[in-house]
Amino acid sequence: xxxxxxxxxxxxxxxxxxxxxxxxxxxxxxxxxxxxxxxxxxxxxxxxxxxxxxxxxxxxxxxxxxxxxxxxxxxxxxxxxxxxxxxxxxxxxxxxxxxxxxxxxxxxxxxxxxxxxxxxxxxxxxxxxxxxxxxxxxxxxxxxxxxxxxxxxxxxxxxxxxxxxxxxxxxxxxxxxxxxxxxxxxxxxxxxxxxxxxxxxxxxxxxxxxxxxxxxxxxxxxxxxxxxxxxxxxxxxxxxxxxxxxxxxxxxxxxxxxxxxxxxxxxxxxxxxxxxxxxxxxxxxxxxxxxxxxxxxxxxxxxxxxxxxxxxxxxxxxxxxxxxxxxxxxxxxxxxxxxxxxxxxxxxxxxxxxxxxxxxxxxxxxxxxxxxxxxxxxxxxxxxxxxxxxxxxxxxxxxxxxxxxxxxxxxxxxxxxxxxxxxxxxxxxxxxxxxxxxxxxxxxxxxxxxxxxxxxxxxxxxxxxxxxxxxxxxxxxxxxxxxxxxxxxxxxxxxxxxxxxxxxxxxxxxxxxxxxxxxxxxxxxxxxxxxxxxxxxxxxxxxxxxxxxxxxxxxxxxxxxxxxxxxxxxxxxxxxxxxxxxxxxxxxxxxxxxxxxxxxxxxxxxxxxxxxxxxxxxxxxxxxxxxxxxxxxxxxxxxxxxxxxxxxxxxxxxxxxxxxxxxxxxxxxxxxxxxxxxxxxxxxxxxxxxxxxxxxxxxxxxxxxxxxxxxxxxxxxxxxxxxxxxxxxxxxxxxxxxxxxxxxxxxxxxxxxxxxxxxxxxxxxxxxxxxxxxxxxxxxxxxxxxxxxxxxxxxxxxxxxxxxxxxxxxxxxxxxxxxxxxxxxxxxxxxxxxxxxxxxxxxxxxxxxxxxxxxxxxxxxxxxxxxxxxxxxx
Length: 874
Prior knowledge:
By secondary structure, the chain is of the alpha/beta class. Among the domains are: 181-351, Valyl/Leucyl/Isoleucyl-tRNA synthetase, editing domain (Isoleucyl-tRNA Synthetase, domain 2), CATH 3.90.740.10; 567-720, Isoleucyl-tRNA Synthetase, Domain 1, CATH 1.10.730; 742-872, no CATH class. It is 43% helix and 18% strand. It has 26 helices and 31 strands. Strands 7, 8, 9, 10, 11, 12 and 13 form a seven-stranded mixed sheet that branches. Helix 16 links the parallel strand 24 (526-527) and strand 25 (570-571). Helix 3 packs across helix 4, helix 17 (574-595) packs parallel to helix 19 and helix 19 packs antiparallel against helix 20. The longest helix is centred in the last third of the chain and has 27 residues, at 846-872. The two termini are 60 Å apart. 40% of the residues are buried.
């Protein structure tokens, strides 16, 4: 088989991915093996591959490929989330381009457009994941709007409602005026923003007196229904029972008293707008105040907005402030910083809004999930620093607002048949709903039932993901859920620790009475070199597919993983991908070198035998390190250990040790051993670099399809010969000393030289064959005294000499050594001066003092070696 001179990722990757798929290597079915299961964090159906996806899915692929090599039944379930808000926004925007308004369509007509859009544009990201090498079982691909997935969501809603855990309530909610839907508290991001505090005067009815009230939102005065004072505030006692007049709209409102008013904030007088503030709503209920909502669903003002009707809230804020000032109502403004809630999805500023919504009671549901992470450790977070965040969220959990004012999603299975507060039933179908409704009113007909128009929060489907993808909601005792659940690992970002991770744990204990997974690996965010979060708006996020095209999927995977410790942000630089690409080329060139050797039936050299024994020991040592890193989810550390093993120990040392002389053959025993060790390296590397390793594996020897690296055996842990490793490390230092002198003295590496070893020091005689080969030494002899006309170096306690008489200019070498001696003596003197200073020794940290003592010892050893070299030159 002809081996290409260069590794060409573009030609290799598609071919091997197709080969893996055609041979069903990623497909999983329940059998007698131990299962290893991962469910993908389902990307939005609207999504395309970005750097966060690249990192997250590379880590998942590393874990699943390693499990597959370990002989486990590896099952990685892919899928997509229907993303109610994001998808509906995309469809609405597309319709607008066609001159169609959502309001002009029926629900069924709109959903047809939504499905058309999903079928046309959705799922792009899953195709792109193949380019990365993601070894998902594509036959299992799920979508949160699949019929069975939707049926699971509806069944759960009905069950929870029947348990009394879901209720309908008229509540103050977070309203996204851009998406025109409510949001849960967790979907609101609070940011500190600089604004103004407006001081306004309200006329007291029937007098010339005025009271001043401070507000950050002057437009909301049009919804005021009271002014509140603290009953213990002496300044306003005379206003008890009186009324005030709201500026502009001239509405007369009562002055009420309540301890809620902060005596120290603003003026001590509070305007009460029950429709637009949670605390004002509570005051309104307590004091039976009128509720006036001044906003439309898009946050423009409605008919209560007077001449500002139809204008955006922020436009009105400026205009109304100007009008109030002109009419002498605005006394002053002050700079003011406050927290403003914005939509996690659309970035729009949230409006508090009173609305009928559906809620899920979370207090008791969350307790098993809190215990599983914080007490029993049934679910482990990596890194565990996120446990405190998890605890805070779960101990302060609020009821989950699960309804959304959208059409794309699972429609809430509630059916209304009258105008009364309780004139509704909850059922999985209209037929079941009719039976329940007729128990309340036997005259109700099917056409009298009106299904709630709202849909469920997208997270209400994805919190069931590890269960529903295996049919565990609809068929709780089916073969697949019993085999694959609970899953093993979840890889995701800490930004959805509560949105998704915690809720899945809640669902796991509620619906199956067990955890959904054992370990949660939380990746960091991908940032640029300036530590900025990557985003389209900043233009600092590279095209993920372009990176794969330029550096190969393996190069990008290595580049990402070398710098991505769990939970820590990754500072991405394309140079990292170049490093990964260079590593792939290094392995390819090593492979070509090995395959280029001519083999002969000759005796194995001693140096090769020792080298193979050493590398075997070193491989087993690194394998143990790698296993330890994986057990602690230190994926980047595992890769770095393998990277150094292959680049340094295998390519730079072992191949040099066993490489035959120019145009000479290698013995078969050595070549077979090298190929075996090379294959072991490929197994370790495969989870990280699947394409390159499969290409080399398949070229190494002729193989049947069933013997692909993708489904080979992970190396078995062996005992480690640490003594041999230590002995080789010593020999490597000797070789480095020889090579350094050759380089510094310009002695050709083709020229054989002698090495003399001063007796009495540490020595590893059986490594001499390797030292001779890699140092190109004619011999290694032992001497009892210093050698004249030689240069020396020290390894541990042993002095080595290389006779160089005639090979260099002795006088010039003496001058050079004398200069170095002078400098080193001066350096030693300065260090000794510092160490003789009692104040420094007593006050400096012990580590600092230790460093200085080490400097002195090193300088003394160097001076001794230089003096011997000088003496040997005569």
